[in-house]
Design brief:
This protein has no helices and four strands. With 58 residues, it is mostly beta strands. The chain has a single domain, classed as Seminal Fluid Protein  PDC-109 (Domain B) (Ribbon). It has a four-stranded mixed beta sheet with strand order 1-2-3-4, with no helix packed on it. The model has no long low-confidence stretch (mean pLDDT 90). This is Putative chitinase. InterPro entries: CBM5/12. GO terms for molecular function: carbohydrate binding; endochitinase activity. Its EC number is 3.2.1.14.
Length: 58
């Protein structure tokens, strides 16, 4: 029996200028995880908890 693949995460890898998210979407960026809120645009990169992002555990 082949080894099972790791379960896929529900987080999207954030790419500045590319990734479009909806409120409540989970993203990963620079090894950290964030939940989108207040409709972040494609250039609102998540770096810490702020108006657009809540930092969460991965």
């Amino acid at each position: 029996m082949p080894p099972t693949e790791p379960a896929p995460t529900d987080a999207v890898v954030w790419q500045p200028g590319v990734t479009k998210v909806s409120n409540g979407d989970k993203v990963t960026y620079n090894g950290q995880c964030f939940i989108a809120k207040n409709s972040p645009g494609v250039w609102e990169s998540p770096t810490q908890s702020n108006w657009f992002w809540d930092k969460v555990s991965c």
